[in-house]
Design a protein that fits this description.
Helix Hairpins, Rossmann fold, Alpha-Beta Plaits, 3 domains, 6-stranded parallel β-sheet, 13 helices, 10 strands
Amino acid sequence: MNPLKEALRIVTLLFLILLLGMLGYHFIEGWPLFDSLYMTVITLATVGYGETHPLSMVGRMFTILLIMGGMGIILYGVTEVTEFIVQGEMSGFLRRQRMKRKIGRISNHYILCGYGNTGVYVLEELLRTRRVCVVVEQEITKVNKLAQSDVPVIEGDATDDSVLIAAGIGRAAGLITTLPNDKDNLFVVITARGLGPKLRIISKVEDVASREKFLRSGADAAVSSNFIGGLRMVSEMVRPETVSFLDTMLRDNSALRVEDVRVGSRSEYRGALLGECDAFSKSGVVLLSIKKGDSFQFNPPASTILRDGDTLVVIGDPGQIQTVRSVLDHS
């Protein structure tokens, strides 16, 4: 039951019965409109006042029908309100309204479409690395679970424009879609690209052969769990210690992360030499590489000049990375 639609339906029915009663008395008895409205109100309210003017036989028959119709609408309204309260929908409605206001205040966040087998790990990593995330999910049990954990969540279909708008796509930093099938994920990519031309969009893809189709449709990257899983199994076989190291970074709450940090257009270090940048020593992160344009410089020398738009690949814990990002990434 949609509480707003039900409330609107009840109010509309009450308005119509008041209008019908007012016009009925006006044309049947010839009374002024205000007297007709007053008679309608006291009749439906059953307050026991006398007739405004003496009623004809036809007027009395009309009053009987008006009472029956009006009481039916009033009882219907009382039943709906009682059901709304008894079934606990009021608390759910209020919770959704609070969630809507909370999401309205969020910006530069990530939208996760689908909290399924893949989405649960995506959300876990986003929260672990201190990213703000809004989840879009259709299954009500999952929505309630996320809401109880104080995770911003929207109940709805991620392929619907209005749902993505409600999730704050216009203010978001990126969108990840992990719906069960490629068709729905592709539709989300197309919809999201239309709503956010500069938005970074990552999609799950089941069929590796469909990857190019996702990229042409607007996805910045399309990730196949089967393909990644195959590479991982080989890595476990031939380079187990490297995999163990990477797993430690990804799964331990207090461990290291490899992250991107962009040099912003208003950064105080824009145009400075890398050797002059003390952001790394202050934060404790280790610089691995710098991406300039389409090329990477691994272990860059101190004479490297930091330019607007350069991307630094660093390693550190989430707190350290957040510190260096706050210093370098001023756009």
